[in-house]
């Protein structure tokens, strides 16, 4: 087997570049697996409004988290912020604009995008109010259960760099 060979060493790409400096360099052109190798499947007249919302959420999130950088955050806020992060990642999925553009499931794509956008906005209202009511807790729990991927997500990854 290769991993037992004395002649072959298994290393990652970063280490290989350190050990064996490239002799040539090539510039790769921008490309995509989208139609014609371009990005129009994701960014076009039908999806432009999604990107405006994505940038809005991105800016809001970075500013919010950066302003909380050195604060001690109560557990309820941490849970809200983490779920906001999940909603952000879900609304940024390339599936939604793809489904809209290709027409395979246009309404579904819009619905899913705006579901996550509205969830994010609703959660952000709890932070503005600086409290989580019983109804708010139930909503948060429902969202955590429904969209339970990225369980170990820490909202601080969205801090402005």
From TrEMBL:
Domain of life: Bacteria
InterPro entries reported in the protein's UniProt record: 57_glycoside_trans_central, BE_C, Branching_enz_MT3115-like, Glyco_hydro_38_N_sf, Glyco_hydro_57/38_cen_sf
One GO molecular-function entry: 1,4-alpha-glucan branching enzyme activity
A single GO BP: alpha-glucan biosynthetic process
Domain 1,4-alpha-glucan branching enzyme C-terminal: 54-158
Annotated Pfam families: BE_C
GO cellular component, one term: extracellular region
Name the UniProt record assigns to this protein: DUF1957 domain-containing protein
Organism: Dictyoglomus turgidum
């Amino acid at each position: 087997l290769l991993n037992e060979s004395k002649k072959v060493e298994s290393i990652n790409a970063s280490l290989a570049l350190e050990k064996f400096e490239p002799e040539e360099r090539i510039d790769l052109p921008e490309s995509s697996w989208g139609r014609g190798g371009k990005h129009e499947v994701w960014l076009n007249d039908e999806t432009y409004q999604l990107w405006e919302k994505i940038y809005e959420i991105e800016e809001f999130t970075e500013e919010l988290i950066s302003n909380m950088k050195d604060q001690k955050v109560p557990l309820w806020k941490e849970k809200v912020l983490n779920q906001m992060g999940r909603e952000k990642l879900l609304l940024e999925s390339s599936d939604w604009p793809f489904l809209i553009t290709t027409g395979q499931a246009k309404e579904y794509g819009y619905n899913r995008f705006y579901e996550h956008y509205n969830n994010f906005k609703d959660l952000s209202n709890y932070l503005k109010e600086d409290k989580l009511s019983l109804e708010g807790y139930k909503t948060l729990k429902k969202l955590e259960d429904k969209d339970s991927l990225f369980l170990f997500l820490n909202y601080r990854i969205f801090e402005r760099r």
